[in-house]
Amino acid sequence: MLTAGAAALLAALGLVSPPAAGAATASTPDTFSATAQQQIAALQAVKAGKTAAESKVDSKLLVAEKGVGKQLTALQSGAAVSKTGTVLVDIRATKVSPDLISGLTKAGAGIRAVSDRYGSIRAEVPLAAVSAIAARGDVKRVEQADQALTARELATPATTPGKAAETKQQKAARISGELQKALTSKTQQRSAAAAATLTSEGDRAHNADIARQQFGVTGVGVKACALSDGVDSLATSQAKGELPPNVDVIAGQEGDGDEGTAMLEIIHDLAPKAALGFASAFNSDASFADNIRKLRFESHCDVIVDDVIYFKESPFQDWIIAQAVNDVTADGALYFSSAGNEGNVLDGTAGHWEGDFVDSGKSVGKFAGVAHNFAGAAGNQIYEPVSDASSAGVPVTLHWSDPLGASSNDYDLYLLDSTGAVVSFSQDVQDGTQDPFEILQTPIFGGSGLRLAVVKFSGAGRYLSLSALRGRFKDSADGLKAYNTPGVTVGHSAARDAFSVAATPAAAAFGRPLEPGDPANPAGPFPGSFSSSSKAERFSSDGPRRVFYEADGTPITPGNVSSTGGEVRNKPEITAADGVQTSVTGFSPFFGTSAAAPHAGAIAALVLSGNPGLPPSEVREALLNTAVDIETPGRDNVTGAGVILADKVLAYTGASPQPLAVAKQPTVTPADGGSALDPGDTAKVTLPVTNDGDGAAVSTSVVLTSPTPGVTVAPRAKSYGTISPGQTGVNDFTITVPASQQLGVPVVLNAKVTFAGAHSPTTSTFSLPVGTPSPVAQDFAYTGAPVAIPDNSPVGASVTIPVTGVGRASKVSFSVDGTTCSTDPLSTAVGLNHSYVGDLVGSLTSPSGAKATVFQRNGGSGKNLCKVVFADDAATAFSTVTASNAPFTGSYKPANALSGLTGAVVDGSWTFFVADVAGGDVGSIRSVALHINGFVQPAGAGRPSNVHGVTNNGPVHPQ
Q1: Which of 372, 449, 634, 900 has the fewest Cβ atoms within 10 angstroms?
Q2: Residue 526: strand, helix, or coil
């Protein structure tokens, strides 16, 4: 509905009514039609009439909020408004505070992602509340949520008419069935030969298979991690043997989708002994940046791979995502990012133009503005034509060479149809504190004769970048000439020390023409290997990338932000395989630079495995200097230095198999024959050392010490000799525990393993419990009212469980209780009711601050947890459950061992926290309990009181 203020403004301008039928005047290459002039003037009226608060609002949201778009012929506001009147937005704040979160919640917002570091909140808010939110002093800007693409190339485009997306329930049922089938097959294989796993054809095409044999390196000692959409089928791939059982997924960052699973399978195929990790890149742009940093600084990943581009990422300055890449590469990580599938000038497949603004002399609208002339010295053309065949649902971005957060030159972007009517627009205010950025999207099913216009509303001429992502600029039927330039690779892939990775097919050619009439797509060499005759994928994005500012906004060439200024980064650097098989549904074959980046990252993992401590600069030198030149002779804008081959890189670096001797969990045998280590005991400690590496661990020895006061270890050191790869050496030590050792306070042992190798020494710490564990568990239950779990919100819900009278714990288990178990999502008789348990991440935090994840996106569409115990000694991991197991009852092993919560006194407040990290389902925490075993007190000693929590439902006791 048109608001009163907007209606009055447009009426005054004579702009409320659309032109009469047949009145439209077609545009010419150097003029706007009367219809376009009227529509742009109407939109500029909204811009000119903005209040200070409205100037902080995305122009598309403001036009939608005021209802102006409905009054203008053919115009789409571009604001994605839900059926309930809400919009997904990114709120950029001076600081994320409890007051801001509370204020947003009171305004009806659902919080989706929060980044304290970058002052950003993604939220779903009522459209009617947007301007009020922007009016807050701690809010800098309210933008339509920044969207992202992975660099996967689909056999059938997502915008194909009639292509139905898989629903959440359908996907859950499919994944549940696949997991159940894999688990059944795994059980059957225990008494038979293991089923063969699938291997990426890139393993062969990159010579990684022969490189592992020739150089004896497998990824040992390296952790390689991926960021993408999600890892929905992780448990299925693990059950099939396609991935190892211990993939480190950041809790709450499992994401939605399976591109991450497919990427991890590729890494594992080429570097099978590398440790793996994952975090989603799709919660928000700021969350993506946070997760890049977490993978390095918390998960300790050596190699990080992603396949994502956010539309707001600047081509001219490192924004928050690229800054995160800079942080981790400065710390020594190797970062590989997909170059993108936005096409290239060489193959005529791109929709990208960049260059200096050229004044066409053509004014626009009633207020201000002059159109850019794409033809430059060759004529006067104010339009860039979009190919009909690649016009469906295309994001179009406009950036210019002002610093981020400080643009005082105001440019706008318009999409028009062949009749001259404005179809979509982006006209945010830039008056000194905003980003130099505009974005619009073409109609979901495309159009005929669509064309783009760039208007300088005010300010100086700047260097422009106009990109139709996955679209194509192409000469139009009515005589418009398409202008394309190289350089569509943008964002964090173009960070100085990142590797931007192009794609070349490993096996069969991509199965469809990118547009009707296109030449055939190239095929790969499988079962052979890449050579100088290999060809890049026709959709692979080209470089180079011109950058004008350092990450902090400092000009690289002060005073020159034109086509002769800045620095030029040679992107992409290297090329790797795509078009490969994985076991993941929908990703066989897996095409796109999304598949290329993990192949390159895996080869880098092999390099680090065979050359521990090799500086990133030398890894870069090796990759670039050994790449096989393809396409245009020498370094080129599409393939960089060429396609990399694992055997050549490993030979260049002098890689060799490395030992990795690590102390494992010791066994303790008290000299008095007792079952437990008690104060005053002397005991034998049997310490195994396993060589997890690729090479023999020669001259292996262990120094075993204890920082626990009064504990003695004899001997201090022992030789283990030579331990072959995969083998274990064992030695016995003797420890003496002082009689004064407090019951329940563990003896800590530090084992330093020294051997001949670059990974030497390795250190491990073990805690040996002191005292006889009590066989009796004390029960402590949450007794409060049910707590609702907010849908799709990291804010989550929590309950507190008080624990008293225990002191030190020998064992902790946790139960979700209830009286009557069912799959009724509204049941009040279960311990935790929820309509989609696979949306949930649950964690337990002890009074000391130690935290363990209990469950992590398991169970699919199954409903409700009831009478279920999470215990470290359970036979079955909760990660293996499927929806068919609902309601979830019985005993399960948690995602993280609960033994990690027993290192300190357990008395105090414990917190059980649950976050719902996907949309569409709700539930509540109702009845949960802790079950804690202490230690048996010596005869005559006072025993702690056995304090039981009280709950109407009664806790479920561990078996």
Answers
A1: 634
A2: coil
Q: Is pLDDT of 17 > 70?
A: no
Residues 255-286 pLDDT 10s: 999 999 999 999 999 999 999 999 999 999 99
Q: What is the pLDDT of residues 885-919, one digit of tens each?
A: 999 999 999 999 999 999 899 999 999 999 999 99
Q: Mean of the per-residue pLDDT values for the chain? A: 92
Distance, CA of 198 to CA of 580 (rounded, Å): 10
Mean pLDDT of 49-66: 89
**Type of residue at 212:** R
pLDDT value for 955: 43
Amino acid at 476: S
The arithmetic mean of pLDDT across residues 411-423, rounded, is: 93
Cβ of 86: how many Cβ atoms within 10 Å? 19
Cβ burial of 363 (10 Å; 0-12, 13-18, 19+) is: middle
| Rg from Cα positions in the chain | 31
In DSSP terms, which residues pair with 764 in a beta bridge?
A: 751
Give the residue carrying structure tokens 């399978």: 265
Please report, for residues 38, 472, 476, 666, the alpha-carbon distance to residue 383 in angstroms, rounded to integers and kept in the order given: 17, 14, 10, 73
Average pLDDT value for residue range 729-754? 97
Closest to 554 (Cα-Cα) out of 537, 538, 567, 572: 567
What is the average pLDDT across 168-195? 81
d(CA 650, CA 843) in angstroms, rounded, equals: 42
First and final CA of the chain: distance in angstroms? Answer: 62
CA angle 291, 292, 297 (to 5 degrees): 90
Residue whose token pair is 């053509």: 362
pLDDT value of residue 18? 36
Task: List residues bridging with 909 in a β-sheet.
Answer: 802
pLDDT of residue 22: 38
Residue 118 and residue 741: Cα distance in Å, rounded?
48
In this predicted structure, the answer to whether residue 116 has a pLDDT above a threshold of 90 is yes
Q: For residue 159, what is the DSSP state?
A: T
Mean pLDDT, residues 303-311: 98
Residue 950 has φ and ψ, to the nearest 5°, of -115, 130
How far apart CA 519 and CA 537 sit, in angstroms, is 12
Q: For tokens 């083998």, what's the residue?
A: 727
- Exposure pattern of 127-152 as b/e (b: 16+ CB <10 Å)? bebbbebbebeebbbbbbbbbbbbbb
Residue 368 confidence (pLDDT): 74
DSSP assignment string, 62-76: HHHHHTGGGGSTT--
| Nearest CA-CA partner of 138 in 95, 90, 91, 89 | 95
Tell me whether the omega of the peptide bond preceding residue 887 falls within 30 degrees of 0, making it cis: yes
Judged by DSSP in three states, 255 sits in strand
Verdict on whether the full-model pTM lies above 0.90? yes
Q: Which residues are CB-contacts of 28 (< 8 A; sequence separation ≥ 6)?
A: none
Read off the amino acid at residue 719: S
Q: Which amino acid is at 769?
A: P
User: What is the H or E stretch that residue 168 is in?
Assistant: helix 168-189
Q: What angle do CA 766, 771, 777 make, to 5 degrees?
A: 100
